[in-house]
Amino acid sequence: MNNYTFTKQNDLFPTIDNRYRFYINDDLLYDCIGIGRNCSHDPKRVTGFNAGKQFGYALLTYFTTRALNIHRIPFCEDRIYCNYFNNHSNYNNILSEIDIDRMESICNEINKLYQNTQSHLKEKSIDHVYLGRKISGIGGKNSCYAKSIIEMKRAAEITGLTSLKIEMDTLNSFSDEGGYSGDIFLEMKIPAKDIFYCSNLIANRSGKSETVETGEWVVLNRSPTGVVKLPISSIHIDYSNWKEIPPMTTQDAKIVLENYSPFVIRELYRTEPTYNPNRIHTSLKGRFLSFLLKKIYNY
């Protein structure tokens, strides 16, 4: 890892050269990509991807997959869609502003953003970029995910495997500076066609904070299941925070690999309507019909 050479944005696209910058027009898309609500505390705005993976990130994932024709198998959709979001009434206000025309406008802008990125990478004759991503596991929500990767890498090393399959989100943040803290470091060679955007290619709005964090690249995962293959050599572990008790044997490693599956089958939970009328009641005829239907169809 010490000899790993990052693809540096500042070398490719100097920030002083505004011709590289793409200006985001749609306010919702700007919030989804940037900080959004976190810089204003306005409940009518979303928390953007640059501030965390919340509702704005979920919308950005959907907008992007629709615009760039990326489709996951329905049972393997991004985990963000299954997460519980607080303040549903605020989301209702946001969703009410998205009609078919607004959707098409946002998708067209995403296509232009992606094409802007691709044209500048092509201009620099870049076929692949070399980036890093760190995953934090200690005391965080990714603890189980981190421990799974650590255990799987150990099992793979013991049994002589050279690659490992893991699930990743459709949109993932990578860095060209090692700027993320974490217990696992992934170094990846990524095809240029899978780069959605990077911080030096996004224009900042006047009087606002930086839209995207310095040194950040956003990478597309086009896998229909979300599962990608990583070389074992590209996964680096900081073992100072972890202990293996008891030490893994060859037989243990074989069992771990047999039981491991990178595929996650997700369910969307059914919820009741947000509006429940209290003055409409089932008539005698309606109750009888309901009884018959339950008997016939067993529901």
Describe, in plain words, how this protein is organized in 3D:
The chain has 299 residues and is α+β, with helices and mostly antiparallel strands. It has helices at 9-12, 27-33, 55-67, 88-95, 100-123, 143-159, 250-259, 284-297, and strands at 128-135, 163-167, 171-175, 184-191, 195-198, 216-220, 227-231, 235-237. The longest helix is centred in the middle third of the chain and has 24 residues, at 100-123. The radius of gyration is 23 Å and the shape is globular. The protein starts with 8 loop residues before the first helix and ends with a helix.
Secondary structure tally, helices: 8
State the low-pLDDT regions, or none: none
β-sheet strand percentage: 5-15%
How would you classify the helix and strand content by structural class? alpha+beta
* Largest pleated sheet: 3 strands, antiparallel
Report the end-to-end length measured between terminal Cα atoms. 58 Å
* Biggest sheet, spatial arrangement of strands: 1-4-8
**Helical proportion, percent range:** 25-40%
Sketch the topology as an H/E string, one letter per element: HHHHHEHEEEEEEEHH
Query: Which term fits the overall shape?
Result: globular
Query: What radius of gyration results from the CA coordinates?
Result: 23 Å
- The overall pLDDT, averaged over residues, is 88
Give the number of DSSP strands. Answer: 8
